[in-house]
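QA checklist item 7 of 12: single-chain prediction sanity check.
[x] sequence parsed
[x] length recorded as 401
[x] structure emitted
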Amino acid sequence: MNDKKQSRGALLGAAFLMATSAIGPGFLTQTANFTSSLKASFGFVILASVLMAAFAQVNIWRVLCVSGLRGQDVANKILPGLGYVVAVLIVIGGLVFNIGNVGGGGLGFNTLLGIPTRIGYVIAGVLAILVFVVKNAKTMMDNVAKALGGIMIVVILVVIFIVQPPVGDALKNTFLPSEAFSNLSPAILTLLGGTVGGYITFAGAHRLIDAGITGEENLGEIRKSSVMGIVIAAVVRVLLFLAVLGVVVKGVELDSSNPAADAFLQGAGQLGYRFAGLVLLCAAITSIIGAAYTSVSFLKTFSKSIEEHENQWVIGFIAVSTIIMVILQASPASLLIIAGAVNGLILPISLGICLIGSKNKKIVGENYQHPTWLLVIGIIVCVIAAYIGVTTFTSNIVKLF
């Protein structure tokens, strides 16, 4: 009975770890910006990106969890050395984004309690480190992800109740958008990469592998957990969309430097502003935890010692991210541009590797049959993701220089 309880906890924890890894400071800014520009039609963008993200994630999680191999190990079996390349890309992208996540934590503390951002960086980093200091760190990580994810949903619901968004108009535009598709496609591509790009899609799958929930006999639970992760991220995205929509439909122009917090401020006054700080803080801490845990899970391939001292490596990863952010004392815009470009290239690579692996008997076993319809849709999403990666990389490198 206790084993079943632990298994259920790990499945739910994996879903929340993936979802809250996606829901970082960039997620909040991205959603607020697109809602401001696209209004109710952003509902269609959310729907399209969620469907594609779900198919990408189900493909990846099935292959990894059936094989019991982490992403880099599957890649190495397909092409020796490829896994190390993927691991390096994931770790670099995860480190740089974690610096931004720490920055978001400092901003959250400043918005919520008025604490100077530089001190907020340190507090956010220390809180994330404390999760991995305890004896049962992975269980604690699961519980923190679930608790903070729940807090975000409740707080945003309160703001929605205050701002009273036009739900009917949002629902209509979700299926029949008033904006031209050419205006919506860049947002769809951006959200797809932001939901399952980089380290994010691996976060939950690697958590299940660590918990020993692998093999064909667990496929049903694995599928539920993978879809649940996407649904949780989608619910937060939809709720945030409605909260911001209730403000921008009144003609309010949002502050581009912190649009999500400004939307809460404009819609619900100082109470809303403090709520925005709480949401930003929860989003930042869960993303710090998810990025650090998943990045280190990719380093395990390089040395057995890393696997044996996993918690210490995760703590070190968070500490380095925090120290760099404290030294920078500013938003590391250039680093985030580089990380965005790298992460834009990772999704089509990781999805492509798993699609190839789904037909490799040495990886998934002699008896496993990957559904053809899922493979075909996965290939379509992979092509779209490749387009995202190329356009993201080229546009961001141009911006950088």
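[x] summary fact logged: The CA atoms of residues 109 and 133 lie 22 Å apart.
[ ] second reviewer sign-off
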